[in-house]
Description:
Blueprint: E1 22-24, E2 40-42, E3 47-50, E4 63-66, E5 70-73, H1 81-85, H2 97-105
Antiparallel strand pairs: 1-3, 2-3, 4-5
The structure holds iron/sulfur cluster (2 copies).
Amino acid sequence: MLSASVNPCLSCGACCAHFRVSFFWGECVSVGGAVPDALTVPVGPYHVAMLGTETRPARCAGLLGDIGAAVRCTLYAQRSSTCREFEASWVDGQHNPHCDAARAAYGLPPLNPPLRPDLSPGRVA
Ligand code: SF4
Ligand code: SF4
């Protein structure tokens, strides 16, 4: 994992405490997937959500720490495809307006695109 100086997510966590994080139930451990069932809640016939993100205000039960300061996903290696596919803005050069929206909900500014893309880290891990 990259350090906090190059991985903005380690001092953010806003998306884990803003959106409903839902995914196909087949990603849970009990049916051969990786996501611990105890950290999920059913939200439809074929979908579950990370526990705590199905309510408002939302906060994933797997998130440790303080939003906008220092956070950690306690099931990082077992997180869902939804979590894996959500990228911080400008990772791999792509803007993610949903990242901006989550950060804004916590009073955090949007991430800036790198001034020198050729020198920026290729991806947040
Ligand atoms: S499982 Fe981890 S990455 Fe996914 S929403 Fe929860 S804390 Fe965030
Ligand atoms: S993806 Fe964006 S909103 Fe989510 S933790 Fe990283 S910087 Fe924050």
